[in-house]
Amino acid sequence: MNNAPQPLFRIHREGYSTLGKLGLLFGLLSAAAYLLLPRRAFWWVAGVSGLVLGFFTQFFRNPPRTTPVVSRGVIAPADGTIVAIEPTDETEYFHDSRLKISIYMSALNVHVNRVPVDGTVVYNRYHEGQYLVAFHPKASELNERNTVVLETANGQQVLVRQIAGLLARRIRYFLREGQPVKSGEELGFIKFGSRCDVFLPLNARAKVYLDQRVTGGETVLAELAE
User: Fold this and answer.
1) In the chain, how many domains are there?
2) Are 151 and 138 in contact (CB under 8 A)?
3) pTM over 0.70
4) Does 194 participate in catalysis according to the annotation?
5) Within this chain, do residues 82 and 181 fall inside the same structural domain, yes or no?
6) What CATH number corresponds to the domain at position 185?
7) What is the pLDDT of residues 96-128, one digit of tens each?
8) Same domain, 39 and 147
9) Are residue 77 and residue 45 in the same domain, yes or no?
C-alpha cells in the first residue's frame, strides 16, 4: 500500500488540453505585447493573461479526498451547494417517485464527480440536450446530461445525473455498465457551472439541508434504509 502523501493541488487530466492551449495563446499574446507595446501595456496584458489562466487552472483542480466509511451512507458526488431535497418523479429509469437531492456547482467549485456508494454500474446513458441555467427546474430533463445507476450489494439502487448548465457544455463520464465501483472513485467531470442530482429511495434519510455546502467524496448526503 502506498502511504506517500498526495499533493494538495493537482490538475485533472480533463484540463490538460484546455490549459495547454490557453497557456500557448496567452504566451503568444504576452510576447506580442512585449515586442509591440509600451512596457506598461505589456505588464497589463501579462497580468490579465495570468489571472485568466489562473482562473481556469483552479477550475480544473483535483484535490485529494478522504471518503468516510459509513454503513448505508450515500456520499456527495460533487462539490457545491444543496439546492433541492424533495420527492419527485424520476422518468428515465425508475419511473416512480424518488427522493431527489440536487447539488449546484458554481464555476469556482471542484468539478470532479465522484461515486456515491459501493456497488455495480447497472445503467449508464448520455443524452444530448439544451443548455438552460443549471438550477432551472427543467434542467434535469431538458439539458445535456448523463445518468448513472449504481446497485449496492443488498440490491438498493442510487441514480446520479450529471447535468450541463448554461456554460457547461461538455460532460465527461468515466464508468461503464457492469463495472464494480467504490464510493469516492471518479465518476465523471463537468466543465464549468453545472448540477448533479442524486435520486434515492423515498425511505432514505437526508443528512444535509438546503443551502448547505458539501464536498464531493467526503460529505454524507443521506442514509439508505436497511
Assistant:
1) 2
2) no
3) yes
4) yes
5) yes
6) 2.70.70.10
7) 999 999 999 888 888 899 999 999 999 999 988
8) no
9) no
